[in-house]
Input
Amino acid sequence: MKVKHPLDEDRDVIDTTHKILRDLQKISEDLETGDLHRLAEDTSIDLDQTKNVCMNLTGDDYLSKMINSDNPTGYHIAKLASSSVGITVDELVGFCVEELRVKALADFFQSSYTSAILRERQDAKVRYEILSEGVSISSVFANIEKNKDALKIDDYGVSQTSLEQIFNGFAAIAENDKKNTVDGVQTGCCGRLSCMQTRTVYP
Output
């Protein structure tokens, strides 16, 4: 599935822009949409301010903990915010809205299907896997279609897991196990031959 790219006229984009600019004490009342986005484009903030407004926006560290150089999702925001010119509120809003849309999608899957596992994430695209026991493809399709607009889903597909995907899954597990070995001998938890332990990997 892919969530929609945030647009200036989207309600969640407008609301997020308002909240961040109010938090920065740049506005005290509602502005026309055009004026609001111009102000967001002209307002730059540093890394500390970026993390603070993200904390205030969600009431937790969901967004702010992503903003660091080690996070594949938020590293570019950290890089911009750490620069000499900082990051514009407009750029930050785009990041926040997209991440909150992806989170809403994750929450939807976790609440709808207890077996849901996030298998892949690439920008605004995610791939989930759910157990087929007691669940039909048509019911999953109907559930997503019913919530498509609320979840801001741009595109999606529902299919049964192919043999190729199963094979690739086993290959990924084997490759990961291989990284934890030296000359084919499993090294265990700390990477030392003297700390060997046996473990079974269940698909």
